[in-house]
């Protein structure tokens, strides 16, 4: 039986084991980002969750990760320490979680750890800990100081100066190897090339440019196509540079699928979703981005004390996000980008009353962006002949 929110039943491919485990080590944050999907949108269950992941939850989650890796013969697994703001958990708790997972996975698989932070609390003590534990660090930075402070204020005003201070330490020679990259949410009020230049000042190895999370019932700011018009100049600058200074994952994955490959990120192509979340209370859930849709949208009714991750794999919501080409929304099937776009990010397809069987609320933007990148690739390949 398929939940009415997911769409009509279609043939189901074999389940793809989870490859990335997001551990919510702290469920609160010290910033009040204006676009935050977790705290300001439909799902407010964070209010009822404990702020910090306890040792008991960490131990159970670690055991489940090790169990899943061994059951599926996985060679490597990715563990992301997340929040809220994960640094609020403190160094002792972060160390405990990492060691618990490594102890439980053992030699069954290589375990790669990363952490996504807003950067305001990043300092030498944390960086020495991350160096000791082998944790790569991603930092959220929304372009230049003015735009960042407008989007990501703290209780005492803008946060850019604190993020820049943390990044200065992260990018110093001693810790540069820990730098995973920058995450930037698109702000239509900021000039795209100014934003790109501000990000490049920190010489990031990779940049994630993110669309603000939205649905058909809670649309994003700006008219259809505005995000494509923001992204295209950045793509042209990035693609046309004599020496490419960084990776931009959105662009790389679109190029991959247009050239016939597979995408490594959800929301581009039809690669099955292989990420699962463990909340601070031990609940096993789907992506927390589903908070934009409705209350409990990510809830699987499972927890690490009573359920293994295979139970999450069998859940209809997981199945819906692992159907590959069979999971393309009905109205997207005739589209020229059906297999390369895949309908866009799953939460962005939601419409109240009829669920997720819709094209992305950013459809017009994706169409323009795919078309522009395709034409650029055709032109570049023609020149090289």
Automatic annotation (TrEMBL):
PROSITE patterns: RADICAL_SAM
Matches recorded under Gene3D superfamilies: Aldolase class I (3.20.20.70)
Domain annotation Radical SAM core: ranges: 15-249
InterPro entries the record matches: Aldolase_TIM, rSAM, rSAM_sf, rSAM_SPASM_FxsB, Sulphatase_maturase_rSAM
Alphabetized UniProt keyword annotations: Iron, Iron-sulfur, Metal-binding, S-adenosyl-L-methionine
CDD domains linked: Radical_SAM (cd01335)
Domain of life: Bacteria
SUPFAM superfamilies documented for this protein: Radical SAM enzymes
Pfam families: Radical_SAM
Name this protein carries in UniProt: FxsB family radical SAM/SPASM domain protein
Organism field: Actinomadura meridiana
Biological classification of the source: Bacteria, Bacillati, Actinomycetota, Actinomycetes, Streptosporangiales
